[in-house]
Amino acid sequence: MPPGLDRQSSVASQRVADTLRKQILSGGLTPGARIMQEEVAASLGSSRLPVREALRILEAEGLVVLKPNSGAWVSKMDLAECQATYKLRERVEPLALSESMPNLTSDDLARLDKIQHEIEVNRDVDHFLTLDRELHLITYSGCRIDQLHTMVRRFWNTTQHYRRAYAHLIDPTGRELINFEHRLIIEAIKRGDPTDAERFLAGHIRRTRLALSRHPELFTG
Fold it and tell me: Strand order of the sheet with strand 34-35?
């Protein structure tokens, strides 16, 4: 196959993956939904080959499950699986943060402050989820360990739907607590204090895990 065609196919696969990823992370495709390759190809004006490759990309990211002789399905979790993922996050993400901190720039810190300000004045759940994801992933962006980046993004992908469902239940006091925890993490990063940063982040993740455990209905249906 000519190199130009290889590149063209890769670009097409990434385009399909980007579209499906946005649909899954935004809630347009819900956990357990079947993804019909023919329908995706038709809606995007693509052949089935880029769709198949896109689904493999999303499977590696934890967003899709490919079942032999069955097809592709949006990943879903039960409460126990989500709890286990959050316990892993409590250990893995503080490590990613401490590895990242020495490499964060003044521009990164300024961006964190800007995002947090936007979170504090925002009242839209979907926009909050976008901002919250961006804030935390920026704090990890200086980590030079690729395996950690892969794990962290997979954890965020697979729990996205359940964070969205829970975010609709958060009252004003809960939002204030999230903002307080974010500020503690950001200030620890600015001080260059990895011990406090790790501790505040682990507590932030743990509190969400415990809150989710009180809402098993989010994992049914």
Answer: 34-35, 71-74, 64-67
- Please give the C-alpha separations between residue 17 and each of 23, 33, 83, 216, in angstroms, as whole numbers: 10, 16, 27, 30
| 47-86 pLDDT per residue, tens | 888 999 999 999 999 999 998 888 899 999 999 999 999 9
- Given pLDDT bands bounded at 50, 70 and 90, which one contains residue 6? low
Domain that holds residue 48: 3-74
User: How many domains are there within the chain?
Assistant: 2
End-of-domain residue from the set 74, 91, 115: 74
Residue with tokens 């994801």: 133
Name residue, tokens 């979907």.
126
Strands 34-35 and 71-74 come out as: antiparallel
Q: How many CB atoms lie within 10 A of CB 1?
A: 7
Instruction: Render the burial of 19-41: b for 16+ CB within 10 Å, e for the rest.
Output: bbbebbbeeebebeeebebeebb
